[in-house]
Design goal:
The chain is mainly beta and 126 residues long. The protein has one domain: Gamma Fibrinogen, Chain A, domain 1. 13% of the residues lie in helices and 33% in strands. The chain contains three helices and six strands; from the N terminus they run αβββαββαβ. The strands form two sheets. It has a four-stranded antiparallel β-sheet. It is globular. The protein starts with a helix and ends with a strand.
């Protein structure tokens, strides 16, 4: 996270390329992305065909099982920018093919909690 924070201090674009288990592909692009203190994510200006899942993570600090929103990180078995209420995406989740659960790698507006087959995240400085 520190390398990404430093890389994007002056702002970056970020792209998420996803593939569902049935082979369907989708993407999300955010024109404005950076990490601030406590690795809080700042992300907006969405375009794509998967839905704007990251808007719910906007301005949340990165949490792990021992820092931040620890209860959610423990329950969902991975570090992420967890919002207080629900899980709209979890790209650092458990990879469990054939499942539909918030603990898995998922992007809710596109495939709900269906486990995704793959995700690539690409960051580009402006």
């Amino acid at each position: 996270n520190e390398n990404i924070r430093v890389l994007c201090e002056k702002g970056c674009k970020i792209r998420f390329d996803m593939r569902a288990e049935n082979g369907e592909k989708g993407f999300a692009i955010y024109q404005n992305f950076y990490l601030s203190s406590s690795y809080a994510i700042h992300i907006n200006d969405y375009s794509g065909d998967t839905g704007d899942a990251m808007r719910y993570q906007n301005k949340y600090a990165f949490s792990t099982k021992d820092k931040g929103n620890t209860e959610k990180a423990q329950r969902l078995k991975g570090g992420w920018w967890y919002e207080d209420s629900t899980v709209f995406c979890h790209l650092n989740g458990v990879y469990e093919p054939g499942t539909n659960d918030a603990q898995t790698v998922n992007w809710y507006p596109w495939r709900e909690h269906e486990n995704l087959a793959s995700v690539e995240i690409k960051v580009k400085p402006k």
